[in-house]
Amino acid sequence: MFNNPFTSFTFVSVWLKHFNNSKPSKVFYFINYVEFVKHKFLPFYINVGKNLTKGVYYSIDDKARDFKNKVFLIYDVPSYFNIKKVTNLNTSSLRLKTVSQYQGLLIDISKFENFEGYISKQFSTQNKRYIRWSHINRLENCFNISYNFFHGEISNNQYELIFNHFYRLLDITFSGKRTNYHHLNPKLWNFYKELVLPMIRERKASFFIIYDNEIPIAINLNFHSDNTLFKAITVYDVNYYRFSLGKLSVIKIIEWCFENNYRISDFTKGDFDYKHKWSNVIYDFNYHIFYDLDSVVSRITASCISLYFKFKSYLRAKKINVFYRKVIFKIERSSNSMNSVWRDYKTEKLIDFRATEQFKAIEFKQQQYSYLLSPIYSFLFANPEPIKAIKVFEDTKKDKTYIIVGSKIAQKTIFN
Fold it and tell me: pTM, whole model, 2 decimals?
């Protein structure tokens, strides 16, 4: 793993600033590429980055002995990194416990000549209708769509705009799911905001953006090594959900990987159905616990850490983490904090509509009508035409009732 972004100088320094009060990390000779901090209360060391990385690579120096009487926890070591195991067991008391925590999925494109070859192989059987190119065509026909991959160059103004929309879209998405999203925690969000800008300019991170009239409607944050793209955080505007922005984002990123001679596009943690559809490799995210066999305290500490994470894995398998995040959401947010985009509505097709005095034309793109965008965009998906051809009227005699009018058909929308 060459030029791992999660052990780079920038990542390490920003992480230490936000999560270690800018205190320096510790380097040990027995292990290369990874830096550590001492646990605040317990007698062991944790890798810099902790669980905010998407994959840590290291190598072992069998001759070094500065692990004596110590324990080291390394989060998120993907099994496909193929890290060389400790070989000098006869002369060294260094031992390793491996605890599997998550399943990871990735796309290995190294065996394919081009994007078309990968698509043909991956979706040649029961999933061949998973990608509906007509959805993408409808998106581009209905809206003024453009794409940008920020990897190396980005202005401060562009970055600020993207990050503001990034937060807004994530907040709306997880408000609708009524679940807590840990990355929106102010401490974590501030960390990412300071981290990503310099890493983009160092070509160790990227933003892939889908725009509608220069407004981001899908944002993908990625990290980069020499030949691997790690997908970190992805979000899209839920108003466009019928147009398959998630699939379009994956398509564009894979195309970029082919064009830039990348070997792997890694979805990293998270067992979701769409990842299985796209991926051709399944691997394990492991936690590695190094300890000194000759030290009783080290052996006990390592065993306790191992049992702790095995118990967490058991709870995760029972979906306790999902329940926990929903409870946290209810505690942190009041029931009336649901974003307006998630309002329930019903629709009715109109054969013949005439805009009488009962109906008032409205500018539906104004912020006060943001809750109308979901039914309007769904109407466009079913009846494709440029959005500039759409008109919307408010029924002045019936509360919460609107008429969406296209060039050929109209629809009544009633909100609950």
Answer: 0.90
